[in-house]
Every structure is written in structure tokens, then in C-alpha cells.
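Methods — Computational structure assignment.
A single polypeptide chain was analysed. Its primary sequence is given first, followed by the predicted tertiary structure written as C-alpha cells.
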Amino acid sequence: MNKLRDFYIKSLTTVALVLAMIAYVVAAYAEKHAGENSWTVILAKAFDWRPVLVAVIAIFEWLIRKKIWKWVHPELDFSGQWKGHTKYTHVRAGTGSVPFEVDQEVMIVQDCLNLRLLPSIGVNFRFSSRAIDIQNDGMQLVYAYHVEYAAGTPNRPLNAYGYEWLDVVNTPEGKRPQQLDGNFAHCAFDQTPVYSGEVHLVRINKHPAKTVGKPPAQPTPPKLPETAYVK
């Protein structure tokens, strides 16, 4: 995220300098050559009025933070919905049964200054992140997490804390990440079993290619028990 924060600061500084130039340099030049009552002078001097200056800077700040960074640095844009697949491959402590696999959908919310992995749910567990960051110039996403499993779920602790690291794969250089592959590891927290394994995320395209004919029927999602948590 440091690269995006630097972009935000430099962009906002540039906006402030340009507005100052318009308010003073351009206004003085236009007044000298076009007269003080010309529309160019009046418009330029408007930027010297504090309410106008604050409003214009606020608009550009929002655009930089929410929109422009995505055009300039698409390779750092992890925002959106992802289809997740987790494969538990090793038991590091306690007694458990491997391998087994779970699926879930996750949502990443991001702007130029903030990055969040929203809580998500799966069968018999609830997943939430504790910290998340972009590393290696956008080639890796890392986060710490907390998983709450439903009471009585076989071979699961009630709570699991861990760490995941995911590399960007199958994505052209300089483009928005489309697939993430990596690993996870639970941390011992006086509860067993402790697992590690593989994690795969694939971006869900909001605008898939159109198909001819009747779309296939969507499967009915399984009904969760009322006491179940989700990952």
C-alpha cells in the first residue's frame, strides 16, 4: 500500500500547486493582457476564494482516492469479489483428518489509502481478516485472519488464527490481478487441531461474456444449520 499512498500524496500536492498557479500566475498574466474584467481573470481569481479552493481540492481528492489510482496502477487493484477455494493438507498439531476442501466467496474493498477483506461465511465457519497488505509491488497479497468454527464441527477448533500469503498468477503484467494462489497456516492458540494448506482466489467477473440460448440453472445453495458459523 505504500506505493498507492505515495501516489495519493504526490497527486494531491500536484493539484494544490496547479490551483495556486491558476489563482496567481494565470490571473496576473490574463489581467495584464486581457484586462481585469475578463472572464479568464474572474475564473482564475475564483480559485483564490477559500470555499471554492476547498471544494475543488475535495473533488480532486475523492477522484484520486477512489478512481484515478485504478487507472494509473491497475496492477495494485485487488478490489472486488473473489471465489475462494481452500485445501487443508497438513495437520501441524493435534489430531485431524486431511485432506479436505472448502469454498467461499470473499469481498475486498479498496481505495488509495485503505484495503479491507470483508468478513465472509462458509459451511460451519465464519472468516474475518485482522490485517492485510500488498507486497512485492503488487505481486503478493498477505493477511492475518481469524476463523470461528461452529461448535461440534468434527476435527475443528472453536477458533483458529493464522496467516495467508497469495501470489498474483495468470495475470498480464500491469493489469488488474485476476487470480491468486498461495498458502495458509494456522497458529497454535491453545486449541487443536492446527492446520496448514493451500488457498486459491479467482476474481468474479461482474460482466461475463454473453452466451447464446438459455442460461444454465443455478444450483440451490445448501441450507446451513441455525447454529453454524461461516468462514
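Note: The chain is about 30% helix and 35% strand.
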